[in-house]
Amino acid sequence: MFKGISELTAALMAALALGSAVPAMAQAIVVRSTGPSASEYPAGKRLPAGASVTLRGGDQVTVLDKAGTRVLRGAGSFAIDSTVNRDRGTAALLARSLSNPVAVRAGAVRGEGTAIPGDEPIPVSIWLADIDSASKGGGRVCLPRGSDLYLWRSSSQARRFVWVGEADGGGTVRVAMPAHTSGVAWPKAMLALAEGHRYRISDEGAGGQADAGKSSEFELVMLEPETVPADAAALGTLLLDNGCKAQFDWLATTLERLDG
Fold first, then answer.
1. Topology of domain 90-259, per CATH?
2. Per-position pLDDT tens, the chain of length 260
3. Contacts of 241 by beta carbon, 8 Å cutoff, 6+ apart
4. In whole angstroms, what is the distance from residue 145 CA to residue 91 CA?
5. Domain chopping of the chain, boundaries
6. Phi/psi zone of residue 166: left (φ > 0), alpha (ψ -120 to 50 degrees), beta?
7. 67 touches 87 (CB < 8 A)
8. Nearest residue to 29 (alpha-carbon basis) of 240, 250, 260, 230
9. What are phi and psi of 75, to 5 degrees?
10. Helix or strand or coil: residue 217?
11. Cβ-based neighbours of 3, under 8 Å, separated by 6 or more
12. pTM here?
């Protein structure tokens, strides 16, 4: 997946070392559920170690555990325990701090080796602000202190320009997202990110100015790097606890596509 086994091993060991300092969290988190028991397992429900998920015929529950996503189908009873045999360390890689990230284009590759499945690229990091849903689930974006941030969009077919700036006023910066480009780096040289500040992302309207009617906002939540866990369930819990719902959704979606 990444160039050089030694680089991958070193990255995973560093990420796992960070994760060891994090207190125990949920063993698994419900991502989505359908069927007769859906109301018993709403999205975001925490499932502790030792819990049992009992499903009826027609039920389907997707959970995020420490290795990634897992689909439970009823009827049947499923134990939520620490036995995971499929952990590829992907969550740890997605949680690494970013430094001068490059643009992510459709048809690109993950790292320098494996092609990304699907029509749109999978995020190479969960440290992103989704320009279409940044205000989803509390309007917060989590970021390890010292890390860079991606501006990300779900559909990359057309060229797009957005304006970013602090929500309470001040200067704005025009950011170009070329066609077939899903992610570009936040323009940190022109607009530094600060803990607790709110930022607005607006589509460009007529006359080349920001369109206030097509905008979203988010509050930046700074995380200390040593508190960022390496396993997927603990990472998802951290994001949800800090109101970073859109990033939790991207984490689950990315792992689900890779696991599939």
1. Immunoglobulin-like (2.60.40)
2. 334 334 433 443 443 343 333 334 578 999 999 999 999 999 999 998 888 899 999 999 999 988 788 899 989 999 887 665 555 678 889 999 999 888 998 754 444 333 344 467 888 899 999 988 755 545 899 999 999 999 999 888 899 999 999 999 888 999 999 999 999 999 999 999 999 999 999 999 877 877 777 888 999 999 999 999 988 999 999 999 999 999 999 999 999 888 76
3. none
4. 18
5. 90-259
6. beta
7. yes
8. 240
9. -85, 150
10. strand
11. 111, 112, 113
12. 0.79
**36 phi and psi, to 5 degrees?**
-60, -30
The DSSP symbol for 88 reads: -
In the numeric block, which tokens belong to residue 229? 């866990």
What is the rounded CA–CA span in Å between residue 157 and residue 181? 8
Report yes or no: 216 and 132 within 8 Å, Cβ to Cβ. yes
Rounded to the nearest 10 degrees, the angle between the axes of helix 245-259 and helix 232-241 is 160
Cα separation, 99 vs 209, whole angstroms: 30
**b/e for 181-209, b at 16 or more Cβ within 10 A?**
bbbbbbeeeebebeeeeebbbbbbeeeee
Per-residue CA distances from 126 to 39, 54, 92, 98 (Å): 28, 31, 10, 10
Residue type, 82: S
Q: Which residues contact 206 (CB under 8 A, 6 or more apart)?
A: none
CB 107 within 8 A of CB 118: no
16: β partners: none
